[in-house]
Design goal:
Largest sheet: none
Strand content: under 5%
Order of helices and strands: HHHHHHHHHHHHHHHHH
CATH architecture of the largest domain: Orthogonal Bundle
Mean pLDDT: 88
Number of strands: 0
CATH class of the largest domain: Mainly Alpha
Length: 383
Amino acid sequence: MWMETKTDVEEASRSRASLSRRVLNTLLLCTGDMECLDEYMQDKSFVLQLGVWGLRGVTRVILANNPLSGALILVALYWASPWQGLLGTLGILVSTLTAVIMGQDSAEVSGGLHGFNGMLVSLLIGVFSSTGDWYWWLLLPVCLGSATCVFLFSGLSSVLDRWDLPVAVFPFNIIIILYLLCTGQDNPYFPHHAATPPGALELNGTKLIATEVIRGIPLGVGQIFACGALGPSLLILGAVLLYSPLLAVHALLGSAIGTLAGLSMAVRHDSLYLGLSGFNGALGCMAIGGLFFAISWKTHLLAIASAFLSAYADIALSNLLGTVGLPACSWAATLTATLMLLLTGSLAAYRIPIGQVRAPEHNLRSRSQWAAGNTAERESTDV
Protein backbone atom coordinates (compact mmCIF):
# COMPACT_ATOMS: atom_id res chain seq x y z
CA MET A 1 0.00 0.00 0.00
CA TRP A 2 2.83 2.39 0.90
CA MET A 3 4.60 1.63 -2.40
CA GLU A 4 1.40 2.27 -4.38
CA THR A 5 0.85 5.62 -2.61
CA LYS A 6 4.46 6.62 -3.28
CA THR A 7 4.08 5.72 -6.97
CA ASP A 8 0.85 7.75 -7.24
CA VAL A 9 2.53 10.77 -5.66
CA GLU A 10 5.48 10.51 -8.05
CA GLU A 11 3.17 10.21 -11.06
CA ALA A 12 1.12 13.23 -9.89
CA SER A 13 4.33 15.21 -9.40
CA ARG A 14 5.55 14.30 -12.90
CA SER A 15 2.14 15.21 -14.33
CA ARG A 16 2.23 18.65 -12.68
CA ALA A 17 5.80 19.22 -13.90
CA SER A 18 4.79 18.21 -17.42
CA LEU A 19 1.78 20.55 -17.32
CA SER A 20 3.94 23.42 -16.06
CA ARG A 21 6.46 22.73 -18.82
CA ARG A 22 3.73 22.78 -21.48
CA VAL A 23 2.30 26.03 -20.14
CA LEU A 24 5.77 27.60 -20.08
CA ASN A 25 6.48 26.44 -23.64
CA THR A 26 3.16 27.88 -24.80
CA LEU A 27 3.94 31.22 -23.18
CA LEU A 28 7.41 31.23 -24.74
CA LEU A 29 5.81 30.76 -28.17
CA CYS A 30 4.08 34.12 -27.64
CA THR A 31 7.38 35.94 -27.12
CA GLY A 32 10.07 36.95 -29.59
CA ASP A 33 9.30 37.01 -33.31
CA MET A 34 6.62 34.26 -33.21
CA GLU A 35 7.98 32.72 -36.42
CA CYS A 36 5.80 29.64 -35.90
CA LEU A 37 2.75 31.84 -36.57
CA ASP A 38 3.95 32.55 -40.11
CA GLU A 39 3.86 28.83 -40.95
CA TYR A 40 0.39 28.52 -39.44
CA MET A 41 -0.95 31.49 -41.45
CA GLN A 42 0.31 30.31 -44.85
CA ASP A 43 -2.95 28.64 -45.91
CA LYS A 44 -5.30 31.07 -44.15
CA SER A 45 -7.47 33.72 -45.80
CA PHE A 46 -5.97 36.97 -47.06
CA VAL A 47 -7.91 39.02 -44.50
CA LEU A 48 -6.39 37.08 -41.58
CA GLN A 49 -2.93 37.30 -43.12
CA LEU A 50 -3.37 41.05 -43.63
CA GLY A 51 -4.30 41.39 -39.96
CA VAL A 52 -1.12 39.62 -38.83
CA TRP A 53 1.02 41.66 -41.27
CA GLY A 54 -0.54 44.84 -39.93
CA LEU A 55 0.06 43.88 -36.29
CA ARG A 56 3.70 43.11 -37.07
CA GLY A 57 3.92 46.53 -38.70
CA VAL A 58 2.54 48.16 -35.55
CA THR A 59 5.38 46.71 -33.47
CA ARG A 60 8.01 47.65 -36.08
CA VAL A 61 7.47 51.25 -34.96
CA ILE A 62 9.10 50.35 -31.67
CA LEU A 63 11.68 47.99 -33.22
CA ALA A 64 9.80 44.82 -32.27
CA ASN A 65 8.18 42.11 -34.41
CA ASN A 66 5.41 40.34 -32.55
CA PRO A 67 1.69 40.30 -33.53
CA LEU A 68 0.51 39.98 -29.91
CA SER A 69 2.62 42.98 -28.96
CA GLY A 70 1.03 44.81 -31.90
CA ALA A 71 -2.44 44.00 -30.58
CA LEU A 72 -1.51 45.36 -27.14
CA ILE A 73 -0.14 48.55 -28.71
CA LEU A 74 -3.33 49.07 -30.71
CA VAL A 75 -5.36 48.64 -27.53
CA ALA A 76 -3.14 51.26 -25.88
CA LEU A 77 -3.66 53.72 -28.76
CA TYR A 78 -7.45 53.30 -28.74
CA TRP A 79 -7.38 53.66 -24.95
CA ALA A 80 -5.48 56.94 -25.20
CA SER A 81 -7.56 58.29 -28.12
CA PRO A 82 -10.03 56.35 -30.30
CA TRP A 83 -9.48 58.89 -33.09
CA GLN A 84 -5.72 58.38 -33.01
CA GLY A 85 -6.22 54.62 -32.89
CA LEU A 86 -8.43 54.83 -35.97
CA LEU A 87 -5.89 56.94 -37.85
CA GLY A 88 -3.06 54.56 -36.96
CA THR A 89 -5.08 51.52 -38.03
CA LEU A 90 -6.03 53.15 -41.33
CA GLY A 91 -2.44 54.21 -42.00
CA ILE A 92 -0.98 50.77 -41.52
CA LEU A 93 -3.69 49.07 -43.60
CA VAL A 94 -3.32 51.52 -46.49
CA SER A 95 0.46 51.27 -46.60
CA THR A 96 0.41 47.46 -46.35
CA LEU A 97 -2.21 47.12 -49.08
CA THR A 98 -0.26 49.55 -51.27
CA ALA A 99 2.81 47.34 -50.88
CA VAL A 100 0.77 44.27 -51.89
CA ILE A 101 -0.63 46.04 -54.97
CA MET A 102 2.85 47.26 -55.95
CA GLY A 103 4.17 43.70 -55.71
CA GLN A 104 6.78 44.41 -53.05
CA ASP A 105 8.83 41.58 -51.59
CA SER A 106 6.44 39.18 -49.85
CA ALA A 107 8.79 38.59 -46.90
CA GLU A 108 8.99 42.35 -46.27
CA VAL A 109 5.21 42.73 -46.51
CA SER A 110 4.48 39.79 -44.18
CA GLY A 111 7.10 41.10 -41.75
CA GLY A 112 5.32 44.45 -41.46
CA LEU A 113 8.18 46.43 -42.99
CA HIS A 114 5.87 48.35 -45.32
CA GLY A 115 3.33 49.27 -42.65
CA PHE A 116 5.01 51.08 -39.78
CA ASN A 117 6.01 54.24 -41.66
CA GLY A 118 2.43 54.69 -42.83
CA MET A 119 1.18 54.29 -39.28
CA LEU A 120 3.58 56.91 -37.94
CA VAL A 121 2.62 59.40 -40.66
CA SER A 122 -1.06 58.91 -39.81
CA LEU A 123 -0.51 59.35 -36.07
CA LEU A 124 1.55 62.53 -36.48
CA ILE A 125 -0.91 64.06 -38.95
CA GLY A 126 -3.60 63.59 -36.31
CA VAL A 127 -1.44 64.89 -33.44
CA PHE A 128 -0.45 68.12 -35.22
CA SER A 129 -3.87 68.81 -36.72
CA SER A 130 -5.55 71.81 -35.10
CA THR A 131 -9.03 70.79 -36.27
CA GLY A 132 -9.60 68.45 -33.33
CA ASP A 133 -10.78 64.84 -33.34
CA TRP A 134 -13.16 63.30 -35.86
CA TYR A 135 -12.32 65.70 -38.66
CA TRP A 136 -13.07 63.25 -41.46
CA TRP A 137 -11.33 65.22 -44.22
CA LEU A 138 -8.08 64.35 -42.48
CA LEU A 139 -8.44 60.79 -43.79
CA LEU A 140 -7.44 62.03 -47.25
CA PRO A 141 -3.86 63.12 -46.38
CA VAL A 142 -3.58 60.13 -44.06
CA CYS A 143 -4.24 57.71 -46.93
CA LEU A 144 -2.05 59.60 -49.41
CA GLY A 145 0.83 59.98 -46.96
CA SER A 146 0.67 56.32 -45.91
CA ALA A 147 0.70 55.11 -49.52
CA THR A 148 3.59 57.42 -50.43
CA CYS A 149 5.71 55.88 -47.66
CA VAL A 150 5.77 52.61 -49.61
CA PHE A 151 7.27 54.32 -52.68
CA LEU A 152 9.92 56.02 -50.57
CA PHE A 153 10.70 52.80 -48.69
CA SER A 154 11.16 50.90 -51.93
CA GLY A 155 13.39 53.59 -53.44
CA LEU A 156 15.54 54.09 -50.36
CA SER A 157 16.00 50.37 -49.75
CA SER A 158 17.70 49.93 -53.13
CA VAL A 159 20.28 52.53 -52.04
CA LEU A 160 20.73 51.60 -48.37
CA ASP A 161 20.91 47.85 -49.05
CA ARG A 162 24.34 48.39 -50.58
CA TRP A 163 25.66 49.20 -47.10
CA ASP A 164 23.38 46.72 -45.32
CA LEU A 165 21.51 49.58 -43.65
CA PRO A 166 17.81 49.58 -42.71
CA VAL A 167 15.43 52.08 -44.27
CA ALA A 168 14.02 52.56 -40.76
CA VAL A 169 11.72 55.60 -40.47
CA PHE A 170 13.34 57.79 -43.12
CA PRO A 171 10.09 57.72 -45.20
CA PHE A 172 8.00 58.82 -42.21
CA ASN A 173 10.33 61.67 -41.32
CA ILE A 174 10.40 62.92 -44.92
CA ILE A 175 6.65 62.65 -45.55
CA ILE A 176 5.52 64.33 -42.32
CA ILE A 177 7.86 67.28 -42.83
CA LEU A 178 6.68 67.69 -46.44
CA TYR A 179 3.04 67.49 -45.33
CA LEU A 180 3.47 70.15 -42.64
CA LEU A 181 5.35 72.41 -45.07
CA CYS A 182 2.65 72.01 -47.71
CA THR A 183 -0.33 72.69 -45.49
CA GLY A 184 0.94 75.42 -43.16
CA GLN A 185 -0.54 76.57 -39.89
CA ASP A 186 -3.36 78.60 -41.45
CA ASN A 187 -4.41 76.18 -44.18
CA PRO A 188 -8.23 76.34 -44.58
CA TYR A 189 -8.55 72.56 -44.94
CA PHE A 190 -5.68 71.00 -43.00
CA PRO A 191 -4.33 73.51 -40.45
CA HIS A 192 -1.84 72.32 -37.89
CA HIS A 193 -0.20 73.40 -34.66
CA ALA A 194 3.28 74.89 -34.76
CA ALA A 195 5.99 72.95 -32.96
CA THR A 196 7.60 74.77 -30.04
CA PRO A 197 11.40 74.51 -29.68
CA PRO A 198 12.35 72.67 -26.46
CA GLY A 199 14.86 75.41 -25.67
CA ALA A 200 12.26 78.19 -25.77
CA LEU A 201 12.09 80.27 -22.61
CA GLU A 202 9.02 79.84 -20.44
CA LEU A 203 7.52 81.92 -17.64
CA ASN A 204 7.93 80.59 -14.12
CA GLY A 205 10.29 77.94 -15.43
CA THR A 206 12.53 77.68 -12.40
CA LYS A 207 10.76 74.94 -10.42
CA LEU A 208 10.84 71.31 -11.47
CA ILE A 209 8.44 68.68 -10.12
CA ALA A 210 10.53 65.54 -9.55
CA THR A 211 7.58 63.13 -9.72
CA GLU A 212 6.53 64.58 -13.09
CA VAL A 213 10.06 64.19 -14.44
CA ILE A 214 10.16 60.53 -13.33
CA ARG A 215 6.69 60.03 -14.83
CA GLY A 216 8.05 61.36 -18.10
CA ILE A 217 10.45 58.40 -18.43
CA PRO A 218 7.79 55.76 -19.28
CA LEU A 219 5.94 58.43 -21.24
CA GLY A 220 9.06 58.68 -23.42
CA VAL A 221 8.36 55.11 -24.58
CA GLY A 222 4.73 56.00 -25.31
CA GLN A 223 5.77 59.10 -27.26
CA ILE A 224 7.29 56.83 -29.90
CA PHE A 225 3.64 56.39 -30.89
CA ALA A 226 2.81 60.04 -30.12
CA CYS A 227 1.01 58.86 -26.96
CA GLY A 228 1.24 61.14 -23.95
CA ALA A 229 -0.92 59.21 -21.44
CA LEU A 230 0.70 57.17 -18.67
CA GLY A 231 -1.57 54.12 -18.68
CA PRO A 232 -1.33 53.48 -22.44
CA SER A 233 2.41 54.17 -22.33
CA LEU A 234 2.87 51.48 -19.68
CA LEU A 235 0.85 49.09 -21.82
CA ILE A 236 3.12 49.88 -24.79
CA LEU A 237 6.13 49.17 -22.56
CA GLY A 238 4.48 45.88 -21.57
CA ALA A 239 4.12 45.02 -25.27
CA VAL A 240 7.86 45.57 -25.74
CA LEU A 241 8.52 43.42 -22.65
CA LEU A 242 6.45 40.60 -24.19
CA TYR A 243 8.62 40.73 -27.29
CA SER A 244 11.97 41.11 -25.53
CA PRO A 245 12.86 41.96 -21.91
CA LEU A 246 16.26 43.22 -23.10
CA LEU A 247 14.62 45.62 -25.52
CA ALA A 248 12.23 46.87 -22.81
CA VAL A 249 15.15 47.54 -20.44
CA HIS A 250 16.97 49.53 -23.13
CA ALA A 251 13.77 51.43 -23.94
CA LEU A 252 13.44 52.64 -20.35
CA LEU A 253 17.17 53.26 -20.05
CA GLY A 254 17.23 55.31 -23.26
CA SER A 255 14.22 57.35 -22.20
CA ALA A 256 15.85 58.08 -18.83
CA ILE A 257 19.05 59.16 -20.62
CA GLY A 258 17.04 61.41 -22.92
CA THR A 259 15.34 62.98 -19.90
CA LEU A 260 18.74 63.50 -18.27
CA ALA A 261 20.01 65.16 -21.45
CA GLY A 262 16.98 67.44 -21.46
CA LEU A 263 17.63 68.39 -17.85
CA SER A 264 21.25 69.22 -18.64
CA MET A 265 20.12 71.53 -21.46
CA ALA A 266 17.33 73.14 -19.40
CA VAL A 267 14.62 72.33 -21.95
CA ARG A 268 11.02 73.35 -21.39
CA HIS A 269 9.36 71.52 -18.55
CA ASP A 270 6.62 70.22 -20.84
CA SER A 271 9.22 68.33 -22.85
CA LEU A 272 10.36 66.56 -19.69
CA TYR A 273 6.92 65.94 -18.21
CA LEU A 274 5.36 64.59 -21.44
CA GLY A 275 8.27 62.33 -22.39
CA LEU A 276 9.19 64.35 -25.47
CA SER A 277 12.80 64.54 -24.31
CA GLY A 278 13.05 60.78 -23.92
CA PHE A 279 11.67 59.06 -26.99
CA ASN A 280 14.62 59.67 -29.32
CA GLY A 281 16.98 58.44 -26.61
CA ALA A 282 14.80 55.34 -26.19
CA LEU A 283 14.88 54.60 -29.92
CA GLY A 284 18.63 55.16 -30.16
CA CYS A 285 19.32 52.90 -27.18
CA MET A 286 17.00 50.13 -28.37
CA ALA A 287 18.41 50.06 -31.91
CA ILE A 288 21.97 49.46 -30.68
CA GLY A 289 21.24 47.60 -27.45
CA GLY A 290 20.69 44.10 -28.77
CA LEU A 291 18.71 44.65 -31.95
CA PHE A 292 21.27 45.52 -34.64
CA PHE A 293 24.21 44.56 -32.42
CA ALA A 294 24.54 41.41 -30.32
CA ILE A 295 24.38 42.44 -26.69
CA SER A 296 27.63 42.56 -24.70
CA TRP A 297 29.17 45.03 -22.28
CA LYS A 298 30.77 46.84 -25.22
CA THR A 299 27.56 47.20 -27.21
CA HIS A 300 25.66 48.08 -24.03
CA LEU A 301 28.00 51.06 -23.54
CA LEU A 302 27.58 51.87 -27.23
CA ALA A 303 23.81 51.84 -26.75
CA ILE A 304 24.13 54.33 -23.88
CA ALA A 305 26.32 56.55 -26.06
CA SER A 306 23.76 56.27 -28.86
CA ALA A 307 20.99 57.32 -26.46
CA PHE A 308 22.92 60.42 -25.34
CA LEU A 309 23.81 61.36 -28.91
CA SER A 310 20.21 60.85 -30.09
CA ALA A 311 18.84 62.97 -27.24
CA TYR A 312 21.25 65.87 -27.74
CA ALA A 313 20.82 65.75 -31.53
CA ASP A 314 17.05 65.86 -31.02
CA ILE A 315 17.33 69.00 -28.86
CA ALA A 316 19.52 70.67 -31.49
CA LEU A 317 17.28 69.71 -34.42
CA SER A 318 14.11 70.63 -32.51
CA ASN A 319 15.49 74.09 -31.72
CA LEU A 320 16.48 74.53 -35.37
CA LEU A 321 13.26 73.28 -36.98
CA GLY A 322 11.12 74.80 -34.23
CA THR A 323 12.06 78.28 -35.46
CA VAL A 324 9.83 77.61 -38.50
CA GLY A 325 7.22 75.68 -36.52
CA LEU A 326 8.31 72.18 -37.58
CA PRO A 327 8.96 69.15 -35.33
CA ALA A 328 12.21 67.18 -35.40
CA CYS A 329 10.20 63.92 -35.20
CA SER A 330 12.66 61.00 -34.94
CA TRP A 331 15.36 62.35 -37.24
CA ALA A 332 17.89 62.34 -34.40
CA ALA A 333 17.54 58.66 -33.47
CA THR A 334 17.34 57.57 -37.13
CA LEU A 335 20.49 59.39 -38.17
CA THR A 336 22.38 58.36 -35.02
CA ALA A 337 21.52 54.69 -35.38
CA THR A 338 22.49 54.78 -39.07
CA LEU A 339 25.89 56.25 -38.18
CA MET A 340 26.39 53.64 -35.46
CA LEU A 341 25.70 50.87 -37.96
CA LEU A 342 28.51 52.21 -40.16
CA LEU A 343 31.09 51.83 -37.37
CA THR A 344 34.27 49.91 -38.13
CA GLY A 345 36.78 48.29 -35.79
CA SER A 346 36.19 45.67 -33.11
CA LEU A 347 32.57 46.73 -32.53
CA ALA A 348 31.71 45.85 -36.13
CA ALA A 349 32.15 42.17 -35.18
CA TYR A 350 28.98 42.46 -33.05
CA ARG A 351 26.96 43.87 -35.93
CA ILE A 352 24.08 41.67 -37.07
CA PRO A 353 23.23 41.63 -40.81
CA ILE A 354 19.89 43.31 -41.44
CA GLY A 355 18.36 40.16 -42.91
CA GLN A 356 19.20 38.18 -39.76
CA VAL A 357 17.94 40.64 -37.12
CA ARG A 358 15.61 38.99 -34.61
CA ALA A 359 14.73 39.57 -30.96
CA PRO A 360 17.82 40.53 -28.88
CA GLU A 361 17.73 37.26 -26.92
CA HIS A 362 17.68 35.29 -30.19
CA ASN A 363 20.51 37.45 -31.57
CA LEU A 364 22.57 36.72 -28.45
CA ARG A 365 22.04 32.95 -28.71
CA SER A 366 22.78 32.94 -32.44
CA ARG A 367 26.02 34.87 -31.98
CA SER A 368 27.11 32.54 -29.16
CA GLN A 369 26.53 29.52 -31.38
CA TRP A 370 28.30 31.21 -34.28
CA ALA A 371 31.29 32.10 -32.05
CA ALA A 372 31.42 28.55 -30.65
CA GLY A 373 31.35 27.13 -34.18
CA ASN A 374 34.18 29.43 -35.28
CA THR A 375 36.27 28.44 -32.24
CA ALA A 376 35.76 24.73 -32.93
CA GLU A 377 36.65 25.27 -36.59
CA ARG A 378 39.87 27.10 -35.68
CA GLU A 379 40.85 24.35 -33.23
CA SER A 380 40.29 21.63 -35.82
CA THR A 381 42.34 23.60 -38.34
CA ASP A 382 45.20 24.00 -35.83
CA VAL A 383 45.26 20.27 -35.21
